[in-house]
Amino acid sequence: MTMTQNQQVVSLMLRLQNLGCRIWAEDDKLRIRTSKNALTAELKQEIQNHKAEILSFLKAAKTQVVSTAEIPVLSPDSPKLLSFAQQRLWLLAQLQGSSAAYNMPIALQLNGKLDIDALRSSLAYLLNRHESLRMYFPTVAGEPQIAILDLDEITVLTVQDCRKLGTGDLDSPCSMPNAPCPNIQNLIDAHAQEPFDLNTGTLFKAKLLQLQEQKSVLAINMHHIISDGWSMGVFVRELRQAYTAYSQGQTPNLAPLSIQYSDYATWQRNWLQGEVLEKQINYWKHQLADASPLLELPTDYPRPAQQSYRGDRYVYSLSPELTAAVNAFSQQQGVSLYMTLLATLSILLSRYSRQEDLCIGSPIANRTHSQTEGLIGFFVNTLVMRQQVKPEQNFIELLQQTRQICLDAYAHQDVPFEVLVEKLRPERSMSYNPLFQVMLALENNQSPDFDFSGLDIEWLGVKGAIAKFDLTLLVTESDNQLNCTWEYATDLFARATIQRMAEQFVVLLKGIIDHPHQSIHTLPLMTAAELLQLQRWNQTQTDYPQDKTLVDLFEQQVEKNPDHTAVVFAAQSLTYQQLNQKANQLAHYLIQNYQIQPDTLIGISVERSLEMIIGLLGILKAGAAYVPIDPNYPPERIQFMLEDSGISILLSQSFLLNQLPINELANSLPVIDLDAEDFAEASTANPTPQSKPENLAYVIYTSGSTGKPKGVMIEHRGLLNLTLTVAEVLQIQPQSRVLQFASFSFDASIWEIAPTLSAGACLYLAQKETLLPGVDLVSFL
Predict the structure, then answer these.
(1) pLDDT tens digits, residue range 142-155?
(2) Strand partners for 33
(3) Nearest by Cα to 367 from 81, 69, 22, 12
């Protein structure tokens, strides 16, 4: 076969596997085993069209998806061994104590005349047929053993009459599909949450809730240590067959089981050792070498020290059109649907975590042996798919890489996850699952044959999701739609976060289908609603005045409201006219006595006071820019700022002069004492504007925590834009009172000062002791 033909055959076989089909070659004939309705007419035709290629592929690879080698039956006196998977669940139960984390509940609504005796006989028949359903695991000398209950030691079915709960609510609205009334739903959920005791059993429970004369609910619960997803399908199928026989007065004639689960577990332990185990383990050691132990998705809540397994689900369906497009795309690329979904999810997780190397769990039925197909037991295995996402590659390249990773993993699927963890010894923590924390599962959800001898059967939902991992995406395909269930740990994520992630997964999937050759980092992720919100956020165009400064806005307020109080400090206050006149006098004094030019820097080192605001406005009115210097800074930092900024003048207060390192400067620096008011005789008229919007308004020094402090220069244009924006957002009006809270040496202070004075409002100052958190601040406010 050509490479293209080979890809087509592999893709077809993988799709069959995802549908629960088993295909193998036998005497030059193609054999297929599948559940009813799993194969569509189109799929049957595709198999027929490629029959020769499939046979050739199977022969060349010497591969049979279903093995025909015999698993030996244990002698009655042979010790029964736990499988590797059972051993791990037993250990987890010892660590966690009583828990419903590994319960496997289902609920079936039975509509019609139910034969309770036939149902009880059918359940007893299955319990007797499948030894695993009667298992429990007593601890002897610290180690688990397997014990099997006799059928007469088990309560096969309990019946509860719920008719007194009323039937009027049966069709009431509920958050779950096909849900009965809330009272009944609570009983179903309570049954699902009942913990099992592995030491004493039983690990199987069945309860019948009688709702009406011809309406009942059958609630089944099993511990995962004796069952898995495939097993639940076996259980329902055989229950139907047994009930049909008993209800008609007959005995079920199901084909005898050639082995029991304990036979498989012992065979697995004996087979998976030595060279067989070494070869498989070596692959995984190489594949997972240096893999990150944790996928660090951004979480809404801190990760707890120990997983609680509390979870919830977010469920939705892809449109039939998108479902068809994804399936068609997968076929065109010669990959399975699962591979396409895995590659897509890898991109999403990589974007969220910013990790290009990540691991995702993948469940696999692990029933490669013909004798295990009809057994109920814990067979399912977990493979670790390591994805390395390079943002510059396109999706087709990532998809082909994903395809090879999956095929290699399938070829080395025999190592139980539990053995893999034991051999690789990854970093362990009770707060997250080893090797991976996100799982992707794809299941075919074709409606099973529910012909229960005259009964109409409906699946009911069971609440109380158990989150074994941080996040699990379960995709089921039914009725030409892909149904997505996002199961998440509520200890980590809020529902809104998962909903957004799920919606972005759909956007990404659509983008991939439309532009598969586009670089991964350019594929879309944002939903239409998010893009609209982003556009609104980015609509920041505002018609700011292009020829104004803060001084202009302040002087406009002086003209409008000259007698309004502008600033208050303790028992002192100034009206807008008084503040303007004092600032004008300082500005004229600076202009007349010093060569002030636009962008001249003037330092100001003061405590909170009326002089602080007078000094700031006076500097700006003179056409200079102010440099605030906290007088409480260490002398070394003050000296650095004075020298680094190159200020030509320093405004301060008399009681601060002794603590400022003015005499340590290399060049002398003129100092103006604002308390002395040497400028009191200057003109009170507004000076001619000196600064333009492109000139500096102030320079603020950074903290220097990551290196040397640096002066950041801000122009009048930027200050004006900030002033108008803050005044609008905070809705500052002339009657508003604003507390000046931030340190004057931080630029947050100008957020408080400029918008207040430009809006004609009142600015309140306070001693720094008053501004400390406590009763004084509350009283002041």
Answers:
(1) 899 999 999 999 99
(2) 22
(3) 22
- CA 606 → CA 93, 286, 610, 633, 663, distances in Å? 67, 66, 10, 12, 18
Q: What is the DSSP letter of 719?
A: H
SS (H, E, C) 397-421: HHHHHHHHHHHHHHHCCCCCHHHHH
Other beta carbons within 10 Å of 42: 8
Instruction: Confirm if 137 and 244 have CB atoms less than 8 A apart.
Output: no
Tokens 């696999």 locate to 364
Nearest to 23 by CA among 61, 65, 69, 59: 65
- Whether the upstream peptide bond of residue 202 has omega within 30° of 0, thus cis, is yes
SS3 assignment, position 428: coil
Rounded to 5 degrees, φ, ψ at 103 are -75, 150
Tokens of 713: 């220069």
266's tokens: 């012992």
What pLDDT shows up at residue 592? Answer: 93
pTM over 0.85: no
132 close to 260: Cβ distance less than 8 angstroms: yes
Distance CA 290, CA 660 (A): 57
Q: Whole-angstrom Cα distance, residue 126 to residue 103?
A: 19
The pLDDT value given to residue 575: 97
Rounded distance between C-alpha atoms, residue 232 and residue 240, angstroms: 12
Locate 725 and state its tokens: 């924006």
Cβ(380)–Cβ(228) below 8 Å: yes
What per-residue string of b and e applies to 763-777 under the rule 16 or more CB within 10 Å gives b?
bbbbeeebbeeeeee
Q: Quote the tokens at residue 424.
A: 């690789």
Phi, psi angles (nearest 5°) of residue 9: -65, -45
CA 183 remoteness from chain centre: 33
Residues 6+ apart with CB under 8 A from 471: 297, 437, 438, 439, 486, 487, 488, 489, 493, 498
Q: Looking at the DSSP assignment, which residues form a beta bridge with residue 737?
A: 762
410, 414, 417, 423 alpha-carbon torsion, rounded to 10°: -110
DSSP 493-540: --HHHHHHHHHHHHHHHHHHHH-TTSBGGGS----HHHHHHHHHHT--
Supply 490's token pair. 């509520």
- pLDDT over threshold 60, residue 167: no
